[in-house]
């Protein structure tokens, strides 16, 4: 279940960042401190988004920073970061990015159900209202659990 | 029946979500397409006729002279975009 990938301390609300790179970096920090990814994993995401474009921007205002498992994904996890001021990623169809779901997965099978839940949430207008109005990380986590 | 590969760079995140959404669209519309899912590493060995990926990855694949039709999706939760692009492929 998606709620098992996301810990309360992986959720950060209304962060202020200067640009796209800082947004990715900060969105990954809770997973780094939580032992779910290595520092190399973050560098790989940034390097790839600089050389190959903003491929992690998946729908309007939403990025899913992640890299292949061999670059330092230690354990299955997901963080949620909302930005106070959205930033441009260079993905014309979906800019600016306001919500970042940094994720780490060691394979493509064990979290299939969780990703299906995330797809549903990203299709749910009310979920974005929760992201915008949440007073605490638990407000978001409770909504995710309620929807499972 | 067409065979499609949904691919992204890592094969664990965006492409998985795209596969889930694409399968929903295929089921709802009864499209004759079978979907597999992998990272871009699997593209050279793929023997089907359709590649589905995110728009900016599609641009890169288009420059590689692959035999498959390439569909690039901008918004992975937009069923209308996926549906119209798959329909375009089936009608071509």
TrEMBL record, chain A:
Q: What is its main location?
A: cytoplasm
* Matching PROSITE patterns: PTS_EIIA_TYPE_2
**Residue limits of the PTS EIIA type-2 domain?**
4-147
**Entry keywords, A to Z:** Cytoplasm, Kinase, Phosphoprotein, Phosphotransferase system, Sugar transport, Transferase, Transport
Q: Which InterPro entries match?
A: Ascorbate-PTS_EIIA_comp (IPR051351), PTrfase/Anion_transptr (IPR016152), PTS_EIIA_type-2_dom (IPR002178)
Annotated compartments: Cytoplasm
Which residues lie in coiled coils?
none
* Keyword Phosphoprotein assigned: yes
The source's domain of life comes to Bacteria
Q: What does this protein do?
A: The phosphoenolpyruvate-dependent sugar phosphotransferase system (sugar PTS), a major carbohydrate active transport system, catalyzes the phosphorylation of incoming sugar substrates concomitantly with their translocation across the cell membrane. The enzyme II UlaABC PTS system is involved in ascorbate transport.
State the name under which the record lists this protein: Ascorbate-specific PTS system EIIA component
Show the taxonomic lineage: Bacteria, Bacillati, Bacillota, Bacilli, Lactobacillales
TrEMBL record, chain B:
Q: Which CDD domains match?
A: PTS_IIB_ascorbate (cd05563)
Q: Which domain of life is it from?
A: Bacteria
Keyword list (alphabetical) reads:
Transferase
* Stretch forming the signal peptide: none
Database matches in Pfam families: PTS_IIB (PF02302)
User: Which InterPro entries does the UniProt entry name for this protein?
Assistant: PTS_EIIB-like_sf, PTS_EIIB_2, PTS_EIIB_2/3
Where the record annotates domain PTS EIIB type-2, the positions are 2-92
Query: Per its record, how is this protein called by name?
Result: PTS ascorbate transporter subunit IIB
């Amino acid at each position: 279940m998606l709620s098992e990938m996301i810990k309360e301390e992986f959720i950060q609300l209304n962060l202020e960042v200067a640009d796209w790179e800082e947004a990715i970096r900060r969105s990954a920090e809770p997973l780094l401190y939580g032992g779910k990814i290595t520092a190399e994993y973050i560098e790989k995401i940034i390097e790839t988004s600089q050389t190959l474009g903003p491929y992690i921007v998946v729908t309007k205002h939403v990025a899913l920073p992640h890299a292949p498992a061999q670059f330092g994904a230690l354990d299955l996890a997901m963080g949620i970061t909302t930005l106070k001021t959205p930033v441009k990623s260079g993905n014309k169809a979906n800019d600016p990015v306001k919500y970042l779901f940094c994720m780490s997965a060691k394979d493509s099978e064990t979290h299939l159900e969780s990703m299906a839940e995330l797809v549903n949430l990203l299709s749910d207008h009310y979920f974005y209202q929760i992201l915008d109005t949440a007073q605490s990380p638990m407000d978001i986590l409770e909504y995710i659990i309620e929807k499972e | 029946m067409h065979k499609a590969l949904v691919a992204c760079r890592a094969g664990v995140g965006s492409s998985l979500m795209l596969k889930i959404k694409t399968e929903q669209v295929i089921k709802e519309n009864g499209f004759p397409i079978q979907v597999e899912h992998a990272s871009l590493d699997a593209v050279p060995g793929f023997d089907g006729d359709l590649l589905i990926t995110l728009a900016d990855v599609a641009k890169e694949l288009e420059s590689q002279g692959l035999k498959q039709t390439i569909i690039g999706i901008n918004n992975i939760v937009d069923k209308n975009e996926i549906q119209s692009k798959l329909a375009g492929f089936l009608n071509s």
